[in-house]
Amino acid sequence: MTHDDEDVPIRVDFRDAATARAWIEETRIKRPYRPRFFAAFGEALASRPALRILELGSGPGQLARALLARCDVSAYVALDFSPAMHALAAEHLGALASRVTFVTRDFREPAWPDGLGGFDAVVTLQAAHETRHRRHLVPLLERARTTLAPGGVLLYADHYLTPETRLLVARGRAGLVDVHLRHEEGNMALWCGTNPALSSVR
Ligand SMILES: C[S@@+](CC[C@H](N)C(=O)[O-])C[C@H]1O[C@@H](n2cnc3c(N)ncnc32)[C@H](O)[C@@H]1O
User: Whose Cα sits closest to atom 20 in ligand 1?
Assistant: First the structure.
């Protein structure tokens, strides 16, 4: 039995190549609405020029593919702790993989943003729950915000572990402004928040 303040143990290890490949098919069947989330991310970024994008927990590259096709992307950094997932992403992206920088890093490590540079958008889909406890969520999003240029956006989508997680995301804010819901379907939601311009930071 685990206590509520303990991290939830990793049951599905995406660093295992067979597990990573199996997940792609499982999620296609279990969450047929994922393409509408890809579209909602694209819609949120479509009007922004020359985007520098960081994706956290980028997995098999499906969101990267959708954003590279739809948006004006000048740089795309795909961060994941699984070399197996990066290999699947390179396979899925084909020629588009040459436009992606793959970074193998663990976003539970507080220093994960070090040296990555500045971004106009940080995006994450079905990955932030991998911090393994809801108390780690706002710190993860706060660190993500530190990689954003002023006026840059964080687009965060995940399934809800518990109903309170929805409230936590909505209220926690992680230093972001104009936090709003962009898409909600199944038990998943896409939230958008903006890194405030320096003059409006309190
Ligand atoms: C459920 S998959 C989602 C993949 C992708 N975002 C998508 O929706 O297609 C979760 C991803 O997060 C990655 N991941 C899990 N824990 C991580 C960690 N601590 N640091 C970095 N990546 C992690 C996994 O390797 C996996 O690729």
Answer: 106
